[in-house]
Please model this.
Amino acid sequence: MKLVAFVDLHADGRRLKQLRMLVQREKPSLLLCAGDISVFEQGLGEMLFAINQMGKAVIVHGNHESEERMADLAGFFEDISFVHNGFIVHENVAIVGHGGGGFDTRDRSFERTGKKLHRALAKHKGKSIFIMHAPPYGTALDAIMDGHRGSKSYREFIEKAQPDLAICGHFH
Model:
């Protein structure tokens, strides 16, 4: 399976054009989006429309989109699957999604959900991908200013569930 992953487009036309060119060149079977495609939901519908035209996509919301609005709008597009606090299976690959947040090192709600997701993934025989908006704690992706600002909840989930691939963004 060929993937193209992206995050933090923030309704930027140049970034969208670069993504389109990448998708045309690489011809992925699936797009994975880790959120923040809008600027506080401005341009959200237009961005989802553009992503839908590029091919099948799995998306989580970022801190610039509410879970509710992303779920509502994504539901209008045939090729977009919004996944939050759950997972879908695509070509025998389980794709776990958790969006939003990005400012707390702990997410107690995700920790409860993460336990259920870990049990479900343990039964899955294929590969797995974890898409989250914020980065896990203690990585090069969450090192900003004077320390690490990522999610310890995500870090613990990754260590236990051992997904084959983890995708995030948020800090830029």
Q: What stands out?
A: The helical segments are 13-26, 44-54, 67-74, 108-123, 152-161. Residues 2 and 27 are 8 Å apart (CA to CA). The domain at 3-167 is CATH 3.60.21.10 (Purple Acid Phosphatase; chain A, domain 2).
